[in-house]
Amino acid sequence: MKKIAFIFPGQGSQTVGMGKELYERFDVAKAVFDAADVALGFSITEMCFNGPEEELRKTFNTQPAILTVSIALYEVLKQHGIVPHIVAGHSLGEYSALVAAGALSFGDAVQLVRKRGQLMQEAVPLGEGSMAAILGLERQCVIDICQTAQAEFGAVQAVNFNCPGQIVIAGSKLAVEKASEMLKAAGAKRAIMLPVSAPFHSTLMKPAAEKLALELSKITVSDAGIPVVANIHGQMIKAALEIEKSLVSQADHPVEWEQCIAQIVNFGATTFVEVGPGKVLSALTKKITKEVDSLNVEDSLSLEKTLDYFREVN
Fold it and tell me: CA-CA 20 to 30 A from 76: which of 62, 152, 309, 311?
């Protein structure tokens, strides 16, 4: 039997209107949105469907919104008999993966990522931190130049190893700008400033990681029912204690996404389904490996395409 991997997107994939079709078509999707509204004490459903966009873009709203849409889509797939053998998620998406693996309850997860967003924003005031995508340079070159820039301009480091030739850096605004100039001079094809509200996964997030550990201690983290590939090292984890540690470390450590995909391929998964808004991870998967079928589910059209695929292979 073919092994299926579900991968869940992180911040940046949000759009006003996401999840609305599924909410209207499937009771299981509606139940997830309703549960999120109850857990959060306000209507994240209304924000997902109608915005306004500037509110949806605030990290403490983005995080629970994307998690809710992702899990609603997951429940629809599950209702159709499509379930994963292994899961992973990019940054915030790791929380969606853990809900799918049974390690976190949805109610706890949606409250936790709302708090995670608040803690991340508090760690670095708005406008003081920055992130940039660096295209076309080797991993070690980016790491080395960031270290040089850090010595002169302040905190900056490589924080997302997304795929060959795509690495994201983060840190203080000036340091990221200076490092980007240095990386372009070293041969980077492009350095694209990202529209984010904090320098995620950088050392500047250490205060957020410490407070997140406290929040995690208040909820139940269970052993995962299937392997979860962790961002911090790209290895499979299942034990509750390991999961808790990895979520704390993830806040102020780089996302080893390329390694995560390599691990899933090594596990034997031949079909990848991106579950959540956007197609960012599907595009990255295609750049990392040519050996797998890559699908995504974000709306009715993509759902039907994915269901057709599984009908054909079965």
Answer: 62
Residue among 13, 70, 90, 91 flagged as catalytic: 91
H-helix or E-strand containing 117?
helix 106-123
**CATH for the 3-123+204-313 domain, from 3.55.40.20, 3.40.366.10, 3.40.50.10240, 3.40.630.10:** 3.40.366.10
Residue 91 a catalytic site member: yes
Q: Of these residues, 201, 202, 253, 282, which one is catalytic?
A: 201
* Predicted pLDDT of residue 126: 84
Report if pTM > 0.85.
yes
233 flagged as catalytic: no
Residue 269 phi/psi, 5° resolution?
Answer: -70, 130
Sites in the chain below the pLDDT cut of 50: none
Superfamily name with CATH number, domain 129-196: Malonyl-CoA ACP transacylase, ACP-binding (3.30.70.250)
Q: What is the pLDDT of residue 197?
A: 78
Side-chain-facing half-sphere of 261: CA atoms under 13 Å? 27
